[in-house]
Design the sequence.
DNA sequence: CGCTTAATTGATCAGGGTCAATCGTGGTGG
DNA sequence: CCACCACGATTGACCCTGATCAATTAAGCG
């Protein structure tokens, strides 16, 4: 766990200050692959922090279409929504360890501890920036550009920036990028033909030419 | 939603809760149509609240493509970003009156006044929810559905829910929805032919059959 | 009353979706 | 240990929505 917490050093470093007071305020839970963490319509009393694993936060349309709003990895906080009722749901992409916090409890804590309040604010800001970056990708990019942006974003979470392990299926990627499984697959295959990446297996991506991907999303 | 002020209530009442402590903390500014409020690369020292008018917050790609992340109307707060440097820019869609707040100043204030802290948090949460709703529209909806969602969203801001006045151009709408000018225009024309809306002029939309639009975005 | 800019409309094209077949891989049981 | 099965991923053929290119109309404004 400690190794994974170190990912994204600046964030992890900042988190230390929050973890001190928050450690005992939360409850550690384990969620199996594909299991629900919270559902649309549920209440917003709890929010969560990822210890290990990957979480997807998503929304469904009545016809079954799904939009994944965000993937969350170790160190990130999710589950904030205005109002009482959730409009989003969250599931474990793979087995996950999380800490759940009672919102009211943390808000009380934040009143006393200025650092907690500030940290909490930063977490929400982080989610906001992530959502806005996501909107840019969804609105103004072609299929290949979307996939390139996804790979680069994911590489940032990787220990070894040259070998990415994808925790999620092609369907998850497609639903995150507003594409179909087939378009994701075709883009990846094309990148491989172009010598930009290698795909040792479906879940692993070796980055051979990061610059080429950067150019696409520039 | 509880913290979101209803548009349509008197301005003074709408802003009362945050304005009581914040009134003297902020500076009222007026921004002419199309003028920049802040730019990508600038610092994040200030954030803003809309008194009147409409603001667009957007991002540009190197090739000139633009994605409008959000439109903000009276009562809404915008300009929050993590880090020191902005990755977004903001412009007045039409003439605007805003209050600008110094972030450091407000944070000091929030330490003392619990209500301010809570209110601030709600505003950011509101922005987050808005961004996530936007992502759903961008990722998983066709052109007509996008335009329908936009009209309904905008109708919520309208005094008279049956006659919408659009503050922005077709280009703005297109850049918000990830479409082209032409697709927006065609969708609107189609709605008009179907008797769902009327277009007395380019900036005014009369809602004739809201349910039909609701069905599209259901 | 032109001039300029925004919006609409039409014709064509292409990117990505859909449908369908095949491949690959990991897991299970004989 | 290997064969089979099931599910995910890939690939191909075709189609459709929305982008692009281009012309026309409408609306402000000096």
Sequence:
């Amino acid at each position: 766990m400690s190794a994974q917490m170190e990912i994204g050093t600046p964030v992890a470093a900042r988190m230390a200050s929050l973890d001190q007071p928050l450690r005992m305020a939360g409850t550690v839970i384990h969620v199996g692959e594909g299991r629900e963490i919270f559902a649309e319509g549920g209440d917003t009393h709890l929010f969560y922090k990822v210890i290990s694993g990957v979480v997807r936060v998503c929304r469904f349309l009545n016809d079954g279409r799904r939009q994944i709003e965000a993937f969350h990895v170790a160190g990130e906080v999710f589950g904030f929504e205005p109002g009482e009722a959730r409009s989003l749901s969250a599931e474990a992409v793979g087995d996950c360890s999380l800490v759940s916090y009672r919102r009211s409890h943390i808000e009380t804590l934040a009143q006393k501890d200025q650092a907690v309040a500030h940290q909490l604010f930063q977490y929400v800001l982080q989610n906001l920036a992530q959502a806005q970056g996501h909107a840019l990708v969804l609105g103004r990019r072609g299929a290949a550009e979307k996939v390139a942006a996804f790979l680069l974003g994911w590489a940032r979470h990787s220990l070894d920036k040259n070998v990415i392990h994808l925790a999620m299926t092609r369907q998850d990627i497609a639903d995150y990028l507003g594409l179909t499984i087939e378009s994701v697959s075709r883009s990846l295959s094309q990148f491989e033909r172009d010598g930009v990446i290698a795909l040792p297996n479906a879940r692993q991506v070796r980055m051979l030419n990061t610059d080429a991907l950067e150019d696409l999303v520039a």
Residues 1-17 of chain A have pLDDT under 50 and may be disordered. Residues 143-217 of chain A form a domain with the Arc Repressor Mutant, subunit A fold (CATH 1.10.10.10).
